[in-house]
Design goal:
Chain B: InterPro entries: F-box-like_dom_sf, F-box_dom. The complex is a heterodimer. By secondary structure, chain A is mainly α. Helices cover about 60% and strands about 10% of the residues of chain A. In chain A, α4 crosses α6 and α6 (about 95-105) packs antiparallel against α7. Chain B is about 60% helix and about 0% strand. The radius of gyration of chain B is 33 Å and the shape is elongated. The chains are: A mainly alpha, B mainly alpha.
Chain lengths: ~160, ~160
C-alpha cells in the first residue's frame, strides 16, 4: 500500500518542442496512452521525456485537461462535462488545431473527441465559402470544377449562396 | 552595411577593411575569435524572419497540418449535408469528405454484422441482397455503392 502511494506521488518531466519543462504527477500523465505505454515499458528511466511535436502553450493546456480528469475521475460526470465545454470556450482555431494534434500524438481520447467536436461545431451549417475562411483553405478548384462538385450533391447546397 | 567602427579597424592581414570586401572582414573577425556582432545580429534577423514565415505558414492553412485521420474525425462529427458541402471547399477536403472512413460513422453500428449477413438474417428473414459477399466476392465498401445498396434494400421493402 505504501509503495502504491509512493508511486502516485512520482513525478515526470515533460519537455515541449520549444524547450519548456513541465513537472507532472504520474497519475496525471497516465491520462495519455502514449505516456502510459512509455511508463509500462520502462522508458521513463530518462529524466526528461521530450515531446518534440507539442509547443509549451499547447502542452500546458493538455496537462490542465489531464489534471482535471485525473483528479476528478471519481467525481460526477456532469462536473467534468461542464469543465470540458468551459475549457474549449473562446479558444481560437489555431489553438484548437494544435490541441487536436497534441491529443492525437499523446493518445488522449477524451481530449481528441471534444476538440474535434468543437472544430466540427464551428463549421456546422456553414456554407463552404465560410468554411474556407475558417480553415484558411485556398480554393484550388476552377469555377467549372466547383460547379461540378456542387451539382453532384445539389441537395446539400440548397439554401446556400 | 559595414558599421562605422569597423572601417577604422585594421585586419590582421594586410590593408584596412575598406580595401577588402565586407565578407573578408567577417572572415577575419571570426578567425581572430568569436563571431562578430553584426554577423550575430544578421543571423538573429534571419532566424526571426524564418520564424515569422513559419508562423504565417501555420496560419495559412490549418488543414494541411492535420493528418487525414484527424480530418476524418472532424468531418464525421458533422451532418451528411455538411460533409457534402465541405467537399466544395477544396480538393484536399473533398478527398476526405468522400472517403469511406468519414461515412462509416453514419452507417448503423452493426454494419459489420449486416455485411456478413448475420444480423440481417435474424432481423429480416426474406432479403438476401446484402449477403452477396459470399457469392460475388467481397462487397465493395465504397460509400456510394454501400449507400446505394442500403437505399435499394429500403426501396424493395
Amino acid at each position: 500500500m505504501a509503495s502504491s502511494i509512493e508511486n502516485n506521488n512520482e513525478k515526470l518531466t515533460l519537455k515541449s518542442s520549444d524547450g519548456e519543462e513541465f513537472l507532472v504527477e504520474k497519475h496525471v500523465a497516465l491520462q495519455s496512452t502514449l505516456l502510459q505505454n512509455m511508463l509500462d515499458s520502462d522508458c521513463s528511466s530518462a529524466d526528461v521525456i521530450p515531446l518534440p511535436k507539442i509547443d509549451a502553450r499547447t502542452l500546458a493546456l493538455v496537462l490542465g485537461y489531464c489534471k482535471k480528469h485525473a483528479d476528478a475521475s471519481s467525481s460526477k460526470q456532469g462536473e467534468l462535462n461542464s469543465f470540458d465545454s468551459e475549457f474549449l470556450k473562446d479558444m481560437d482555431m489555431g489553438a484548437l488545431f494544435n490541441l487536436v494534434l497534441a491529443a492525437n500524438f499523446m493518445e488522449i481520447k477524451g481530449l481528441l473527441d471534444i476538440a474535434a467536436q468543437k472544430i466540427a461545431d464551428t463549421i456546422k451549417d456553414k456554407p463552404h465559402q465560410e468554411v474556407r475562411e475558417i480553415f484558411h483553405v485556398e480554393n484550388d478548384y476552377t469555377p467549372e470544377e466547383e460547379a461540378a462538385v456542387r451539382e453532384e450533391n445539389r441537395w446539400a447546397f440548397e439554401g446556400f449562396p | 552595411m559595414c558599421p562605422k567602427w569597423l572601417l577604422g579597424w585594421k585586419c590582421p592581414a594586410k590593408g584596412t577593411p575598406d580595401q577588402r570586401s565586407l565578407h573578408d572582414c567577417h572572415t577575419s573577425l571570426s578567425f581572430i575569435g568569436g563571431i562578430s556582432e553584426i554577423v550575430r545580429r544578421e543571423r538573429g534577423i534571419k532566424k526571426r524572419e524564418e520564424m515569422e514565415r513559419d508562423k504565417t505558414r501555420d496560419e495559412m492553412d490549418f488543414l494541411s497540418a492535420l493528418p487525414e485521420c484527424l480530418l476524418t474525425a472532424i468531418l464525421s462529427r458533422l451532418s451528411p449535408r455538411d460533409v457534402c458541402c465541405s467537399a466544395a471547399t477544396g480538393k484536399e477536403l473533398r478527398s476526405v469528405a468522400e472517403s469511406d472512413a468519414t461515412w462509416e460513422r453514419f452507417l448503423p453500428s452493426d454494419q459489420e454484422e449486416i455485411k456478413s449477413g448475420l444480423a440481417y438474417d435474424s432481423a429480416m428473414h426474406q432479403e438476401t441482397t446484402l449477403r452477396s459477399p459470399d457469392r460475388d466476392g467481397p462487397l465493395r465498401w465504397r460509400t456510394g455503392n454501400l449507400i446505394a445498396s442500403f437505399a435499394d434494400h429500403k426501396n424493395k421493402k
